[in-house]
Amino acid sequence: MTQHLPPPALDQIHQRAAKVQEICQQADEGVLMLDELIAQLEEQIRSSFVYRYRLKLSPELEH
């Protein structure tokens, strides 16, 4: 027969919830760092000579 485990204690639930919130916050911070890095790289690309040269050759690349 199937044995049912007792539900976890309330303090365990709170500890796990706090850990999950911390992990989510760390993930959000990582995503923000990556977004900032992507924005910097895109700016560098847009300001590069090669990009501007290709833009002149192919106007459909303009956004």
Would you mind describing this structure in some detail?
By secondary structure, the protein is an all-alpha fold. The chain has one domain (14-61). It contains 2 helices and no strands. The chain has helices at 10-46, 49-57.
CA-based shape:
rod-shaped
How far apart, in Å, are the first and last alpha carbons?
64 Å
Q: What characterizes the major β-sheet? A: none
In percent terms, what proportion of residues is strand? under 5%
Helix content: over 70%
What count of structural domains?
1
If you compute it from the alpha carbons, what radius of gyration comes out, rounded to the nearest whole angstrom?
25 Å
Strands, count: 0
Low-confidence spans: pLDDT under 50, at least 5 residues?
none
SSE pattern? HH
How many helix segments?
2
Write down the overall mean pLDDT.
90
What class would the helix/strand composition place it in?
A: mainly alpha
